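Write out the 3D structure for:
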Amino acid sequence: MSSNWNYPTTIWEGDNRIKDLFKACVNLKISNPLFVTDKDLLTLDMTKNIIFELKKNFKNLNVFSDFSGNPIGKNVDDGVKIFNKFKCDGVIAFGGGSGLDVGKAIAFMSGQSRPIWDFEDIGDYWKRADENNIAPIIAVPTTAGTGSETGRASAIINKETGVKKIIFHPKFLPSIVILDPVLTVDLSPRLTAATGMDALAHNLEAFCAPGFHPMADGIAIEGMKLIKKSLLIAYKNGKDLEARTDLLAAASMGSTAFQKGLGAIHSLSHPVNSQFNIHHGLSNAIFMPYVLTFNKKLIEKRIVSICDYLNLDKNFESFLNWILDLRKELDIPHKLSDVIESNKINIDKLSKMALEDPSTSTNPKKMTIDDMKILYEYSISGKLF
């Protein structure tokens, strides 16, 4: 069974839909694509087979894979050089969040004359771009977490400052997305857990973000419902295609919903990701209960309002206990100090970076530097608010 829909972009969903990849290129008039994927995925038979099939139609297909998790600006610059050298006219972004973010950024930067940092998600910086020179993008996620395939931004680390920057433009949104659960069945339980919790963090923080955006709220609630239904199933049985499909959809929904905003879970995570190369979904999962309890006074009514739909008792504690129990079942560490040695954590430095993170502005509670420090301290000790 497969289906197509067109929100927020064209989505082709279903088992083995990867067979339609060439058709997607034809639809977008891409005659010389750059296939972008990370170096680890490139070694897998799955990826090799997809490239083999593409080469039947694109004999001189170029592949860029000189990057791994938590990509840096130089990775994008190197990809742009390959794109322009071989006169590519579109990008196939294949992989997890890193592969999709790099692929989207290459397509965006291929026709720009300014450095990538000039397009950080601040005010109207995106209007600096020449939007007539952004190459078309086909996104094929192989994990169900970041939802970058339906996102209008890429997360790229500025190596000089050590800060993860959100690079934004409305045309970062891929033109066609292929959601094929078969591509995710070999994802390890550990990565299934981390990416699934990443998708949960996106939907949860979008729902809790202040402001009036009922479309985002509705999408976020349904995304959480799908995760509650299917994350543990996929974690225990990676071959369950229905569960894998649910998670792919929930990830795409999360990144669609968080146009409303994110919050302190992400503010705390981004500095940890850039400084310690910790998986983004894992750090989001660790920080989640600390931020939930920190924000409790401002989000309790909203959380209670969705408990019935999530088949939970109608109180904040029921929702919190679901999160805590889920983390335990997924073998997610409870404390930041379980994944980073405490003596290596510079709370002052991380707190300053967290406060300056774009996600901070839409946290339900207005944040101060002291709030960030306390949140890091609690996450290191394991104490909830």
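Residues 97 and 146 are 5 Å apart (CA to CA).
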